[in-house]
Amino acid sequence: xxxxxxxxxxxxxxxxxxxxxxxxxxxxxxxxxxxxxxxxxxxxxxxxxxxxxxxxxxxxxxxxxxxxxxxxxxxxxxxxxxxxxxxxxxxxxxxxxxxxxxxxxxxxxxxxxxxxxxxxxxxxxxxxxxxxxxxxxxxxxxxxxxxxxxxxxxxxxxxxxxxxxxxxxxxxxxxxxxxxxxxxxxxxxxxxxxxxxxxxxxxxxxxxxxxxxxxxxxxxxxxxxxxxxxxxxxxxxxxxxxxxxxxxxxxxxxxxxxxxxxxxxxxxxxxxxxxxxxxxxxxxxxxxxxxxxxxxxxxxxxxxxxxxxxxxxxxxxxxxxxxxxxxxxxxxxxxxxxxxxxxxxxxxxxxxxxxxxxxxxxxxxxxxxxxxxxxxxxxxxxxxxxxxxxxxxxxxxxxxxxxxxxxxxxxxxxxxxxxxxxxxxxxxxxxxxxxxxxxxxxxxxxxxxxxxxxxxxxxxxxxxxxx
Length: 467
Known about the structure:
Elements: H1 6-13, H2 15-18, H3 20-66, H4 71-99, H5 118-137, E1 140-141, H6 146-155, H7 157-163, H8 204-220, E2 223-225, H9 245-272, E3 284-291, E4 349-361, H10 365-372, E5 376-380, E6 390-394, E7 397-406, E8 422-434, H11 435-438, H12 444-463
Parallel strand pairs: 1-2, 2-3
Antiparallel strand pairs: 3-4, 4-8, 5-6, 7-8
Helix pairs in contact: 5-9, 9-10
């Protein structure tokens, strides 16, 4: 292998020292060669982009020009766009109509300048009558009373024979036998029930008579329910008129909201029980209670116990009355809301929480909740009540919390649920109102208090330390 003689090469290149024009020519040629390569590459890429974009777009424009869209296609597209706009408008209208509901009184909310207190007393009477009507339509009734049990025993020929020559221990009312034999446990006899709240004794035959009375009641109704267990019923029974008319208007307003909620609950029960005419076979056996504050002094207390089945104690303080409360902050609800909805103008909604407890067939737990949250129909004749009746739909309930337990945890005296396996279902739910839907009848005092409470809630949130 021959090694290049670099000395000879340098001597040959030294010619450029004496010939500057030649050197410049060589340098120019080299630069031209170096520029030619990227130029060719860029030119190729530019041609590709022109072919892909400019020429293709031009050809498309030329095609569209030569083949214009027909008037029929334009009309179809225009109609489609109009339908999309109509859908959006229809959704807004449906949301408003969901809150446009029938009123218990058309003499209060449209005209707040009321000079007669009789209007409020009439409202309370209508509220109670409307609740009674809901119970009638649902074929609801309560278990036999102690007086009915006593009367049934007294009228029994068996009881008449047993009374001769036998002494009974008193039951707290003259002539009333006790409910079970000495030494017999309260649920020891088949059919032996024991009346609630008293220590009683009853012979076997008398126990059978009590059972028959309770079974006859269960056969005659579709669901157990007592109006005293529903929000506002006792409140309006002995209504103490507020000192200020505005307070009385607020009482009516919140009771109107309560009535709408209670109506949905009864519509749900009626729908689930529609194919049955007896408590013994119906899926929903009993409406135990319905409340907006669950007996708490204020809503929003964290951590609640499972409600018992006893009657709520009378509420003498107006601030403690069981009535709907607008949820303005996370502290106002009966539970932490999974939806995060609050009453505010941004979303154009008002939100309240309510609690309802029912006894039902264990297989009907999910169907009951699904029906509770389903769309329901209502009639509307305008808020003046004078226009032609229309049928609207509403779907305003969301279940936030569920709890249930077996009814065998403790005896249910005088309530006969048949042979089904039943549970006590306790629900906390959210109810949504569209503000525009009822803004024309919403009392100004309610709106003002709501705004002040919202400002206080926001101020409290801002003052809390951030984690």
